[in-house]
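Tokens for chain A. Residues wanted.
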């Protein structure tokens, strides 16, 4: 996996398939991918136009968080770390999740985030443009149908879908 692109755990999950193929590529092709994906990522990031629809906060799925997220959110809400964990966190398989229950409790009516400055890293990275870029590159490079991308990215993000249409 190209290390300088900086994949984290969550993104890595999305990239497992790409990774398998990447590992079997000749070195020359790997080097080219590192450069190309990095450049493509910059372009995609600059043309990504968030619709502020709030769909990403209504996915119904609990959100992966870590100790740093918990500390920041507890501080923002002016509660202790333990109080925050008791009210908002569940642990599954050794990983911590912000309980969402359909729609995140921190979502405002106007689709803004009430804890914007302290929101979890997962939310900050959504909709994961880095692995999206790697997938996009991989599909295009192998003359595959880019429209199949959402199968690997079941994200309810219109702005992301617009990028591949
Ligand atoms: S913490 Fe904020 S950005 Fe993250 S899901 Fe909740 S409302 Fe959305
Ligand atoms: S789903 Fe996509 S377009 Fe809608 S608010 Fe989230 S990131 Fe923006």
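Reply:
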């Amino acid at each position: 996996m190209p290390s300088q692109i900086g994949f984290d755990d969550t993104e890595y999950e999305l990239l497992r398939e790409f990774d398998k193929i990447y590992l079997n590529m000749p070195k020359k092709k790997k080097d080219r991918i590192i450069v190309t994906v990095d450049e493509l990522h910059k372009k995609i990031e600059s043309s990504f136009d968030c619709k502020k629809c709030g769909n990403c906060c209504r996915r119904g799925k609990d959100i992966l968080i870590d100790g740093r997220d918990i500390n920041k959110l507890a501080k923002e809400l002016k509660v202790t770390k333990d109080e925050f964990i008791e009210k908002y966190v569940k642990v599954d398989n050794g990983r911590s999740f912000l309980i969402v229950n359909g729609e995140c409790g921190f979502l405002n009516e106007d689709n803004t985030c009430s804890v914007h400055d302290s929101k979890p890293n997962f939310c900050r990275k959504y909709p994961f443009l880095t692995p999206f870029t790697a997938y996009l590159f991989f599909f295009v490079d192998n003359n595959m149908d880019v429209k199949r991308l959402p199968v690997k990215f079941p994200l309810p993000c219109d702005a992301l879908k617009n990028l591949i249409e």
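The beta strands are 63-65, 89-92, 95-98. The radius of gyration is 18 Å.
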